[in-house]
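Protein Record: Sequence and Backbone Structure Tokens
======================================================

Structure line: whole-number tokens from a learned vocabulary of local backbone shapes, matched to residues.

Purpose: to set a sequence beside its fold so the mapping can be learned.

___
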Amino acid sequence: MIYFKDVFFKRAKKEGYFARSVYKLEEIDKKYRLFKKGYKVLDLGSSPGSWLQYIAKKVGEKGIVVGVDINPLKWETPPSYVYFWQRDVLNWDFKEIKNLVPFNVVVSDMAPLTTGIKDADVYRCFKLADKALEIAKMFLAPKGHFVTKVFEGQEVKQLLMDIKNYFSFIKVFKPKGSRAESREIFIICLNRR
């Protein structure tokens, strides 16, 4: 297990990414083709910034990438088409992005600070995913895509029921980059109705 962690950690460091989590997004993107040149993308829970780095490369300078996180970004000088606001998504008024909508893709890697109490952690992660869905419903363009992280638990069924009303394609996916013991999964939602 330590070897697995080191491989992704070392690879991220070698390739200039801020975190190993970038390879989860890369795998999702390769499988589901989320990003295209010129897209506008909203990344919720974007600190330390590896997802922003990856998305910026994919959409290019004609795209727009917006990151929001309660924690600061490690990326000191992102390109001019990458924006970041340090905000608590649960209490955010969205005023900074209102002139940038709609987005082609909304992604969320938000996760709560875990307590070690399984049911509580699953529920808190569900609430973040539910908030990400609410934001996607407000700001996602027709035919747009949405990806959110959740922890496996009974709340996932409730979230999937809600998502089915808004997207043509839905898939629950666990990337190889996720640790085997991790309960994290990603819900892939394509083609907003």
Notes: The first strand starts at residue 40 and ends at 44. The two ends are 41 Å apart (CA to CA).
